[in-house]
Amino acid sequence: MKIDRITATVFRTMTDQMKDSDGHGHPGPAHEVRSGLLQIHADDGTTGQVTASVGDIEEGLLERFVRPVLLGQDPLRIEKLWHGLYHWQRGSNMKLTDRTLCAVELALWDLMGKVTGQPVWKLLGGYHDKILAYGSTMCGDDMEGGLSTPQDYARFAEWLVGTRGYKAVKLHTWMPPIPGAPDVRMDYAACAAVREAVGPDIPLMLDPNHWYSRSDALWLCQRLEELGFHWIEEMMEEASLSSYQWLTARTPRLNILGPESMAGKHWTRAEWAAKGACDMMRTGVWDVGGIIPALRTAHLADSFHMSCEVHGTGAGNLAVVAAIPNTRFYERGLLHPFLDYDKPRDYQNRIDDEMDAEGYVHLRDTPGLGQDLNMDFIEAHRVQDPHR
Ligand code: MG
Questions:
Q1: Does residue 249 sit in helix, strand or coil?
Q2: Which position among 27, 67, 325, 328 has the lowest Cβ density within 10 Å, counted as fewest Cβ atoms?
Q3: Model confidence over 236-288: pLDDT tens digits?
């Protein structure tokens, strides 16, 4: 079997989210945006595919870097193809990103699943057939009844746990340009209100502003220790490994989780584990360049008796979470009182991560990654010339 065609489709889709001036998502008026679908076609008629951001699967990237490595090759030799693309990254002047690498690799895994008739999470090891999700909130905002006060977070957490069935909650708190943010005391007030609302037994996590000083970070961590939080993530710039070593050594009762957005795939993460810069490891397919480096991270964490908590939502991350033993949760979100996360987007027949009333996401037995897309919608809303 050989790869004979690689195509990217850009299509129009509606969203009810908007980005603020710093790039954080919030609820907003419904409007049209563009999304993408990457497809890798084999000469036996099998197609592997994955949805992706348009910028990650641009035609220029496919033509310069992806087709030269993949065309004519056996699509099932994913490790070899991943290395071929990875080696191209150095010579690409940073144009071939880990996100593009991820999109290509996920489409290859989808193809592998379709050829073998197996779901990807089983091909990777298949440890969990269901996994508890944590409800991961959007960043704080200044919308009345949204996430603008500690009481808003408390009310929403109560709904997530008491009504929707989540067994764990993670807060993203306020960041600029929200007035008054960032502020560790505001973060603490939200965390304390949520703990009060959900009681002592629900695991809680925090992802605050990413650029606190060591002293602010330590103050916040010590308060979270008092509140019995399960972990905190990315409260300082992750490029400073020493700062994370310093903080991890001073917070014996709180798990420091990382690194999340740091470049360097599993190699960076190995340094963090070896140097005691975190208590739990972080990986995510879109952060590290696909399933292969995400699994490497998870397995090295296992070798250090550490859990590996996977960043981000979607079919690729869900496959990794299900594959590995040393993880506790799937991240489901981002969630907001004004948005209905459970409703499929216009291009989906079903969302990637349906959750039951007990808070479990169940893995599907359909071959491939498990995305259930409305291909007629995507075709009908195709953008003929994506450069316009
Ligand atoms: Mg995070």
A1: helix
A2: 325
A3: 999 999 999 999 999 999 999 999 999 999 999 999 999 999 999 999 999 99
Q: How far is the CA of 59 from the centre of ligand 1 (A)?
A: 30
Distance 83 CA to ligand 1 centre (A): 27
Beta carbons of 100 and 70 less than 8 angstroms apart: no
CA of 322 to the centre of ligand 1 (A): 20
pLDDT in tens, 117-146: 999 999 999 999 999 999 999 999 999 999
Find out whether the peptide bond into 37 is cis, omega within 30 degrees of 0: no
CA of 284 from ligand 1 middle (Å) equals: 10
Whether this prediction's pTM lies above 0.70 is answered by yes
Task: Count Cβ atoms within 10 A of the Cβ of residue 16 and give its class: 0-12 exposed, 13-18 middle, 19 or more buried.
Answer: middle
Whether the pLDDT of residue 386 is over 90: the answer is: no
The β-bridge relationship of strands 25-42 and 47-52 is antiparallel
For residue 127, count CB atoms less than 10 angstroms from its CB and return exposed for 0-12, middle for 13-18, buried for 19 or more: middle
Could you tell me the distance, in angstroms and rounded to a whole number, from the CA of residue 171 to the centre of ligand 1? 10
In Å, what is the CA distance from 239 to each residue of 173, 210, 268, 294? Answer: 22, 11, 10, 19
